[in-house]
């Protein structure tokens, strides 16, 4: 097994010399899931003025503990007047705190008769007050570049009145399926044929990782056509992903086509599943090159390879650190296993229990059993030549996007 390469060596080869894709401006409505290409600076304070955190009465804390006349009523969105000395103001959630007031008492604690309110004693300064700039201060960095824009970040941008934002372009990906035995759903199966499960699976994963799948191709078991389609794919995409055709069979032409067209950086990994994996580059006519990842044809191997290689590549292409590395965690193994000379990536589900996180392994870890991936929350990473017993602590990679 000396010729098999490690995950770390494969990632180093894959990511060497990769530069981020260009930036583009998109509307905030279209920015969900995109990666910021530049820092965003705050132009407004949030909140923009001191306001009440609840419905109640605004007053000076020093006036608490007595009956106070109600000098004004302040609704959310209305302009307040300075608070008259020795008085309180009826105020509603979000209402502007009047000048002179320094606290708000919730209405449930106040007795009201006519135009007066009995305020309880010992109300602390700033009680139930949201001060100007508590969340965001004008001139500060609102969001840093490299952040993937999800719900809270989008709300943060909207709170500044922002309508457009600079984000990284989606890396363009061409997805190739190799093999005469692979046919698309909807086509009657001939003897020896199977339906293409890799294409929809990988397309969805790539889209979740931030890519734009610009081309899907079926590649027959023919060397000349493999070269032609690989050349076409590289001309249209930043990354070319193939499934199958990278092993040592007589009809596996992708590896040979890649070596003729461009550069093979690495082939065959010391991992299970997914040993036959090819990494390389395909040059274009303009002198640039497309990155190539040849995943195994077995669906589980493709699933594992996508998380281990396609996700970090998309992260580097979009300069998004959170995508470039899978989150690591530890769990208690609820299974027994042992490994040979290859590192095993076991599909596990995770349970939160009173004693901590527990990993349950799927019974059949064969690389052809795609059902083991459906409810998988993580990969339990079992080192080579190791043995795990129930109750042992195992390192896991959390499958999060």
Automatic annotation (TrEMBL):
The keyword Ubl conjugation does not apply. Pfam families: MoCF_biosynth, MoeA_C, MoeA_N. The keyword S-adenosyl-L-methionine does not apply. Its EC number is 2.10.1.1. Residues 174-316 form the MoaB/Mog domain. SUPFAM superfamilies: MoeA C-terminal domain-like, MoeA N-terminal region -like, Molybdenum cofactor biosynthesis proteins. Its cofactor is Mg(2+). PROSITE patterns: MOCF_BIOSYNTHESIS_2. Transmembrane segments: none annotated. This is Molybdopterin molybdenumtransferase. It comes from Halomonas colorata.
């Amino acid at each position: 097994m000396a010729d098999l390469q490690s995950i770390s060596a494969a990632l180093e080869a894959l990511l060497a010399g990769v530069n981020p894709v260009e930036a583009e401006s998109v509307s905030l409505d279209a920015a969900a899931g995109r990666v910021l290409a530049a820092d965003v600076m705050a132009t407004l304070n949030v909140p923009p003025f001191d306001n009440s955190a609840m419905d109640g009465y605004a007053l000076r804390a020093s006036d608490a503990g007595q009956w106070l006349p109600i000098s004004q009523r302040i609704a959310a969105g209305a302009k307040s007047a300075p608070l008259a000395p020795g008085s309180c103001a009826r105020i509603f959630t979000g209402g502007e705190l009047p000048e002179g007031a320094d606290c708000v008492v919730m209405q449930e604690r106040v007795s009201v008769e006519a135009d007066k309110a009995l305020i309880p004693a010992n109300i602390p300064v700033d009680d139930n007050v949201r001060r100007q700039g508590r969340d965001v201060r004008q001139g500060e960095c609102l969001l840093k570049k490299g952040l993937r824009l999800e719900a809270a970040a989008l709300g943060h941008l909207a709170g500044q009145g922002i309508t457009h934002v600079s984000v990284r372009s989606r890396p363009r990906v061409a997805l190739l399926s190799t093999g005469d035995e692979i046919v698309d759903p909807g086509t009657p199966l001939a003897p020896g044929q199977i339906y293409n499960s890799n294409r929809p699976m990988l397309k969805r994963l790539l889209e979740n990782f931030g890519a734009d799948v610009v081309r899907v191709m079926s590649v027959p078991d023919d060397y000349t056509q493999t070269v032609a389609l690989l050349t076409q794919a590289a001309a249209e995409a930043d990354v070319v992903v193939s499934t199958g055709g990278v092993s040592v069979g007589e009809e596996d032409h992708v590896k040979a086509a890649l070596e003729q067209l461009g550069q093979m950086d690495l082939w065959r990994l010391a991992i299970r599943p997914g040993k036959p994996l090819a990494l390389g580059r395909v040059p274009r006519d303009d002198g640039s090159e497309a990155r190539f990842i040849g995943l195994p044809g077995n669906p589980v191997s493709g699933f594992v390879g996508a998380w281990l290689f396609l996700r970090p590549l998309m992260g580097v292409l979009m300069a998004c650190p959170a995508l470039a590395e899978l989150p690591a965690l530890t769990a208690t193994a609820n299974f027994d296993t042992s490994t040979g000379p290859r590192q095993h990536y076991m599909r596990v589900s995770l349970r939160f229990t009173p004693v901590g996180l527990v990993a349950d392994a799927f019974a059949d870890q064969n690389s052809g059993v795609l059902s083991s991936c459906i409810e998988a929350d993580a990969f339990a990473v079992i080192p080579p030549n190791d043995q795990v017993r129930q109750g042992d602590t195992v390192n896991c990679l959390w499958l999060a996007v």
